[in-house]
């Protein structure tokens, strides 16, 4: 117990590691689509159900745990949940049939529903408002780093040892990080950097829902980010399959390309957008919305151009640019929304958002899979998938519109919630 420290960078480092492992355990199925599909004789629509299985109980569990996290020690929940979902990931590797694999994926979702909701709340309490954009962007490095490890490492292990070993290996880091979190991270005081908002009363769920959906800026942020998440998950889910089908590359090579493209550009973009938002957001809080809006409106049309190229180097180069443009919204979105929340709303808000993103993440692959099966009837399996991904990628422009609309109202909404919290604390 005496080894626990209230050191922001230590907490951020370990929690980012936990978030990354959670994303790896969630996304590693993407690189295993083809071998799992082949072993169990599935269609694109059926194999996409691995994402749906993860979401099945994740939403209910995460919302229940989030309400608990507003009252109890959050680091205990994070440590236990990380250990639980890591064990469930190992069970995926021991699955003896398609139904067993889906049940194991449900168990992974349950574990993440316990371990993930309080992450952003803890990080937010370690950092003041004007530094949260960058801090939460660091936390949101989980998707790009997790994509790199999941795609590259997962593909190599699956190719050399089989897809089951990929799940077994992916389970190990989570066990280690769960222990490190329990030993080294102290529970931060709630609202320690939000002096006017300090209060022991936990606001009801309807108050959280009001701030997420009644405020115009937050409503557009939620819709825009959920749409962007659905598009990203859907496109990434089938990206290795596209390379295998269209260019005949091996699973290991396809996983390497997918991991590299989904990680390096996104890492730079997430950090850069977080830094820029903190720098310009002090004078104009709408910067947290306008920066991702500009990137997404460029990234959508460019993805359509990229995915329809018939040479692999050109496709990979253009998709790398779109990854830079389309994934940087993650950290700044969470920071903008967390700044609108009372300190004892943040775990609940995070759980609600993660649940929305989980539904989007599960729905994205299903939509792309259904579109692929539809277009395949007239174009063949390969070209059908290309068309499905092009149609999906174009919708990033829609997400950009929501970010732009959010930026128009964010300053007024932030002033309103800050005044409400100050009045409650008085």
UniProtKB/TrEMBL annotation:
PROSITE patterns hit by this protein: MFS
A single GO cellular-component term on record: membrane
Transport keyword on record: yes
Principal place of residence: membrane
Segments forming a coiled coil: none
Membrane disposition: Multi-pass membrane protein
Top-rank lineage group of the source organism: Bacteria
Transmembrane segments: 12-33, 45-65, 77-96, 102-122, 134-157, 163-185, 221-244, 256-276, 288-308, 314-337, 349-372, 384-406
Domain Major facilitator superfamily (MFS) profile: 11-411
SUPFAM superfamilies linked: MFS general substrate transporter
One Gene Ontology term of the molecular function aspect: transmembrane transporter activity
Keywords recorded for this protein, A-Z: Membrane, Transmembrane, Transmembrane helix, Transport
Location within or outside the cell: Membrane
Record protein name field: MFS transporter
Organism: Alteraurantiacibacter buctensis
């Amino acid at each position: 117990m005496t080894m626990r420290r209230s050191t922001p960078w230590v907490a951020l480092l370990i929690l980012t590691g936990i978030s990354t492992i959670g994303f790896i355990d969630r996304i590693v199925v993407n690189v295993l689509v083809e071998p799992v599909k082949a072993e169990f004789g599935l269609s694109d629509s059926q194999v996409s159900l691995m994402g749906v299985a993860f979401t099945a109980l994740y939403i209910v569990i995460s919302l229940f745990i989030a309400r608990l996290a507003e009252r109890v020690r959050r680091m205990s929940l994070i440590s236990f949940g990380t250990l639980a979902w890591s064990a469930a990931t190992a069970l995926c590797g021991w699955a003896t049939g398609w139904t067993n694999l889906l049940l194991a994926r449900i168990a992974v979702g349950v574990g993440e529903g316990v371990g993930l909701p309080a992450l952003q709340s803890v990080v937010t309490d370690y950092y003041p408002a004007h530094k949260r954009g960058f801090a939460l962007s660091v936390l949101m490095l989980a998707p790009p780093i997790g994509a790199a490890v999941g795609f590259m490492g997962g593909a190599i292990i699956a190719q050399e040892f089989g897809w089951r070993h990929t799940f077994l290996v992916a389970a190990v880091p989570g066990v280690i990080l769960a222990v490190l979190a329990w030993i080294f991270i102290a529970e931060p005081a709630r609202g320690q950097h939000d002096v006017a908002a300090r209060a022991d009363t936990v606001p009801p769920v309807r108050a959280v829902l009001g701030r997420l959906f009644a405020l115009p800026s937050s409503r557009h942020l939620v819709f825009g980010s959920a749409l962007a998440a659905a598009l990203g998950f859907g496109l990434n889910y089938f990206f290795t399959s596209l390379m295998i089908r269209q260019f005949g590359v091996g699973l290991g090579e396809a996983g390497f390309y997918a991991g590299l493209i989904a990680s390096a550009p996104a890492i730079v973009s997430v950090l850069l957008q977080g830094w820029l938002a903190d720098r310009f957001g002090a004078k104009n809080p709408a910067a947290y919305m306008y920066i991702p809006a500009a990137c997404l409106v460029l990234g959508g049309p460019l993805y359509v151009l990229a995915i329809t190229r018939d040479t692999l180097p050109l496709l990979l180069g253009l998709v790398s640019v779109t990854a830079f443009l389309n994934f940087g919204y993650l950290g700044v979105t969470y920071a903008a929304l967390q700044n609108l929340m009372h300190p004892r709303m943040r775990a609940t808000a995070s759980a609600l958002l993660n649940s929305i993103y989980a539904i989007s993440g599960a729905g994205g692959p299903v939509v792309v899979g259904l579109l692929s099966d539809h277009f395949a009837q007239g174009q063949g399996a390969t070209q059908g998938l290309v068309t499905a991904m092009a149609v999906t990628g174009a919708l990033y422009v829609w997400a950009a519109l929501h970010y732009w609309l959010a930026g128009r109202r964010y300053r007024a909404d932030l002033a309103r919630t800050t005044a409400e919290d100050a009045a409650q604390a008085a």
